[in-house]
Structure formats: structure tokens, C-alpha cells
Write a structure and sequence with these properties.
It is built from 23 helices and five strands. By secondary structure, it is mainly alpha-helical. The chain has a domain of 125 residues. The strands form two sheets. It has a three-stranded mixed sheet with strand order 3-5-4, with helices on both faces. Helix 11 runs antiparallel to helix 12 and helix 16 runs antiparallel to helix 20. InterPro entries: Pept_M3A_M3B, Pept_M3A_M3B_dom, Pept_M3B_oligopep-rel. Belongs to the peptidase M3 family. It comes from Coprococcus comes.
């Protein structure tokens, strides 16, 4: 019987018992006299994985809810310690599975993707990296603590990064500038720690790649992220399309914004203010916003209504921003319950609705796929598909913005579209930055800032930090948590945005048909390969030269 998330009892996963189960079932699998015996051992392994993953996710969520909670910090440390040992035992099972005479029959039920993933796990798992994995995980956990800690006094309020970002949307330019300076000062105050952490992470990650025989860390991460069907060269072509088509479009949009605001020069602290009389802000408390979302999802489709009722019944949310809470937003998934969880940091801006609909896209896909596919570890697809689920949901929900923004709904819709386009060059900038960091082994802090500064001029030519020395010299890169916690992920938001924009174009022509394609994509989770999922979702290949141009053209944006 499932309970509300806050009432779920957490019990530390027994790592040793889990390892013994893997060993036992691997032996049973190897000695199976028939397919039925092999199938039984295979399913037992899947179930053991699901139990461990569910417990791990529960601990991770509670750790992110309060990074200062000593109990869950220790639980994550224990999990980080045991995971490399589990990986080594699972590698033995994967090796047995891959050479098994029952593999073809198992693929008929569980899909060929499992075999591809098993081959990849064998390639990536080696005991020589176990201690390095533990060190990496601990450094990432340390990053979350460091980044969640800073606060400053602002007009009598104690504000952290999210609170200051809200103030950078104030209609009073002097307040925006003051908030920006405080925000930059907070990052500068922890920059030495962040630089040191990142340098350590680079060294550890480079060594792991070397230990496994890769030419570099980027090559290893493309394998780890299961980017089986495209290469760094394909991503470079994609970034080129952004430079050629999205950057000029964004320059035009920012010029229009400058004129709307009635200012001579657009500074960084002006970028977030879309309208001179203020951005649209959601109306209502957190609970009221959730009820409005329930109404929206019931009207959008039968499937989304059922999904959101489930989320509300079991309170699978933590949305309010607070001191000590991990930054950012995410959706995670508890396999045994087939239950997604949405994490956010509401700060009273339109970003609250954007992040709710974004993470609800992930959650809807997880809820849907987990009830349709046989391997729960494949509930989420690879990142460049998963982010289509989330970003397309943002577009599908635009007709209901009046529920959240009242008479300012049209302002919000326009601002959302502009913001979604303006974010793409930054995503490409982050991606090229980290490719260079690892290719050039940039362990020197000032050298990294120099590279970031160079790339900003290419991807963000409108960016003006108004004389702030720290950011003007390239310090802005360190505010992107993905560089610390999940390297090479961030470009997936841009890749997926192309698919989401393609759905948006289809919505204008035939909403029912667009939803049918999107729902078909969600149902498959990660059980199919990248290009097959694009075909199922009726989407174009974003890495093909000309795709971005064609998508923008259809939307009359160029």
C-alpha cells in the first residue's frame, strides 16, 4: 500500500544482501536448465535492482530537501560507497547474459536495448575506478552543500541565489542592478571553493576515462550517457546550427526587448525583465497553483488528468524554495511504486510555472512508460529524448496559462517562447565549454574563465555585465550546476528543444495529432533506440544540417 511521500518509511538498503542476491541469481542464470529458469533469475535481478534504486532515490530526494540533514547525508555516503561494488557484481551478470543461449528469447520480451545497455555497462565498469567513483560522488555532494549555503542581506531580507534572481526581475532598474551585484558577490564569495571542487572533479574524471582506455573523458561520457547513435562531431554540427540561426534570432529579440524597456544598453540584469511594467507572475499559493495544474491536466487529456491525480494523492512534490535546500529542479522516479517525484524551488516568478510544467512532463512520461514497458530501469530514456518529454509539455500547457497568470496570460506565453529560444545559445556555450575543459585539461581556474569569456562572445554576444569584474572575466560558468553534477548533459536541453518546438508547430495545425505523437513517444520510455524513438514520435533528426532552420521557418521565426 503506497503512502504519501512524506510518510514513506526509509530503511537503508542492505548493500551486502543486494550483492549476494546478484551473485545467487547470476549463478542460477548460468546453471538454468531451461528458458523458464533463466527467465526467473533474470526477473529476480530486475526486481532486486528496482528495490535498491527505489531506496536510493528516496534517500537522494530527502538529502536534496535539506542538504544540512546529517542523517540523509550519511545515507548517501553509504550508498556512494556500496554502488561501485554493486556495479562490479552486475558486470558479471551482464557478461553472463550477453553470452547466454537464452539472450535472443529474453530480448523478445525485454527488448534489444537491454542488451545494448548491458554491453555498455561491461565496457564502463572496472574495479580500478571504484574509489574514483566514490570520490567523485562525494565531491558532487560537497558542491551541493557549498552552493546551497550563501545568503545575503537585501533590503532587510536574507536572500540566497533564487531570491536574488527574483529581484533581478524588478521593474526598478536600480533594484535589479543591486540584486545582480549581490548575486555576483555571492558567487564570488564561494568561487575559490567551486574552482577547487571542479579542478578535483576534472582530475578524477580524466583518470577514470584513462583507466578504461578511452581517448578522453568526453568519449567516456558519450558512452555512459548511451549516446550510441550520434557523436561529438554531430553535436558540433548542432552547435553550428545554433550559432547560425538561433544566435541572430536572439540578438533580434534582445534588441526588441531593449526598445520595450526604453533603455539605451541592455545589461545582464535587464535580460530577465521582459516587459517594462513587470513580468507576468503566477497568482496563488503553492497549493492553489497545484489545484490549477490539476484542472489544466484534466482538461488537457484523460491520461494527464489521471497522472496528476496520482501525484496529488501521494503528494509527490517538494516545490517551495528554502534555505539549505538543493538548488534547481528535477524529477526522479521510485521504481517499486511506479511513482515520479517533482522537486523545485518556487520563488514567486513565472519560472515556478515553467519548472512545474517541465518536471511534470518528465513525471508524466515516467508514470506512463512504467505502466507500459517491461524493464523499469528503462522508464526514463536517454537525456536528449527525456527532455523532449519535459519541454514539449511546457508547450502543450500554454493554452491554460490564464489559470496561473489571469489577464497576463498572453504576456506569459510570448515571454515563454522568447525565453525558450534565448536559452539555447547558453546551452550550446556550456556544452562547448566543457568539451574544451576536458579536451584541454583546463585545471587552472583563470584559464577556464578565459575560455568561458571567449565562448560568451560567440554564443552570447549581447551579454553585458556592466563592469562587474568577476563575471566580466568569465566567472559566470560556475553558476551552472550541470557542469559539476552531470557533465555533458546540458546540451540535451537544446537538442530536445528542437523536438519540442517541432511539436509546438504541429500543435498550431492539429493539437490532437500532435498530442497523439507525443503520447506515443512517452509510452515507450527508454525501451527503444534514439532514432527509433524519433520515428515513433514523428520528429526530425536535430543533428541533421537544416533541421533547426526548417523548424524555425515553420514557426515563422525566420
Amino acid at each position: 500500500m503506497m503512502e504519501k511521500f512524506s510518510e514513506m518509511k526509509y530503511v537503508r538498503p542492505d548493500g551486502e544482501a543486494y550483492i549476494q542476491t546478484i551473485q545467487k541469481e547470476t549463478k542460477n542464470f548460468n546453471e538454468a536448465a531451461d528458458f523458464e529458469g533463466a527467465h526467473q533469475a533474470f526477473v529476480a535481478i530486475l526486481n532486486a535492482n528496482s528495490h535498491f534504486n527505489t531506496t536510493r532515490v528516496m534517500a537522494s530526494i530527502r538529502n536534496s530537501q535539506d542538504t544540512n540533514d546529517e542523517f540523509y547525508r550519511k545515507e548517501m555516503e553509504y550508498i556512494f560507497e556500496i554502488e561501485p561494488q554493486i556495479d562490479v557484481e552486475m558486470k558479471k551478470f551482464y557478461e553472463s547474459y550477453l553470452k547466454s543461449s537464452y539472450r535472443t528469447e529474453l530480448e523478445k520480451e525485454f527488448g534489444e536495448v537491454y542488451s545494448r545497455q548491458a554491453e555498455n555497462k561491461v565496457r564502463l565498469t572496472d574495479p580500478c575506478n571504484a574509489d574514483l567513483q566514490i570520490q567523485e560522488n562525494k565531491l558532487v555532494q560537497k558542491y551541493f552543500q557549498v552552493a546551497a549555503a550563501p545568503v545575503t542581506d537585501f533590503h532587510g531580507e536574507q536572500l540566497g541565489f533564487y531570491g536574488l534572481l527574483k529581484m533581478m526581475e524588478d521593474t526598478d532598474r536600480s533594484i535589479r542592478k543591486e540584486a545582480f551585484e549581490k548575486w555576483a558577490e555571492l558567487y564570488k564569495s564561494i568561487s575559490d571553493e567551486l574552482d577547487s571542487l571542479y579542478t578535483e572533479l576534472i582530475g578524477i574524471r580524466q583518470q577514470m576515462a584513462k583507466n578504461l582506455g578511452f581517448n578522453g573523458y568526453a568519449e567516456m561520457m558519450y558512452q555512459k550517457m548511451e549516446r550510441f547513435e550520434y557523436t561529438p562531431e554531430d553535436v558540433a554540427i548542432f552547435r553550428k546550427q545554433i550559432r547560425e540561426h538561433i544566435v541572430p534570432l536572439c540578438q533580434k529579440l534582445y534588441e526588441e526587448q531593449k526598445d520595450r524597456l526604453g533603455i539605451e544598453e541592455l545589461k545582464y540584469y535587464d535580460e530577465s525583465l521582459t516587459y517594462p511594467d513587470g513580468n507576468a507572475v503566477p497568482e496563488g499559493t503553492e497549493e492553489e497553483l497545484l489545484e490549477k495544474a490539476r484542472t489544466m491536466y484534466h482538461e488537457l487529456s484523460k491520461e494527464t488528468g489521471e497522472f496528476f491525480d496520482f501525484m496529488m494523492e501521494y503528494r509527490l512534490f517538494d516545490l517551495e524554495g528554502r534555505q539549505g535546500k538543493q538548488q534547481g529542479g528535477y524529477c526522479d522516479f521510485m521504481e517499486e511504486y511506479k511513482a515520479p517525484f517533482i522537486f523545485a524551488n518556487f520563488n514567486g516568478t513565472n519560472a515556478d510555472v515553467n519548472v512545474l510544467t517541465h518536471e511534470a512532463g518528465h513525471a508524466f512520461e515516467a508514470y506512463t512508460a512504467s505502466r507500459n514497458i517491461p524493464v523499469l530501469s528503462q522508464t526514463f530514456s536517454t537525456a536528449e529524448i527525456s527532455e523532449i518529454h519535459s519541454m514539449a509539455m511546457e508547450y502543450f500547457t500554454l493554452p491554460w496559462m490564464h489559470l496561473f497568470f489571469g489577464e497576463n496570460a498572453e504576456k506569459q506565453k510570448k515571454a515563454y517562447l522568447w525565453d525558450s529560444l534565448e536559452a539555447m545559445p547558453y546551452m550550446a556555450c556550456v556544452d562547448e565549454f566543457q568539451h574544451r575543459v576536458y579536451a584541454e585539461n583546463l585545471t587552472d581556474a583563470m584559464e577556464r574563465r578565459k575560455v568561458w569569456h571567449e565562448l560568451e562572445k560567440i554564443y552570447l554576444p549581447w551579454r553585458d555585465y556592466d563592469g562587474n569584474e568577476f563575471l566580466g572575466q568569465g566567472g559566470f560558468w560556475m553558476q551552472k550546476q550541470h557542469l559539476f553534477m552531470c557533465p555533458f548533459y546540458y546540451i540535451d536541453y537544446a537538442v530536445s528543444r528542437v523536438g519540442a518546438l517541432e511539436y509546438y508547430g504541429k500543435m498550431q495545425e492539429d493539437l490532437e495529432s500532435a498530442w497523439k505523437d507525443y503520447y506515443a513517444l512517452c509510452r515507450q520510455g527508454g525501451s527503444k533506440g534514439y532514432h527509433e524513438l524519433l520515428r515513433i514520435g514523428n520528429l526530425s533528426d536535430p543533428f541533421k544540417e537544416g533541421t533547426i532552420y526548417n523548424v524555425l521557418k515553420k514557426l515563422n521565426l525566420i
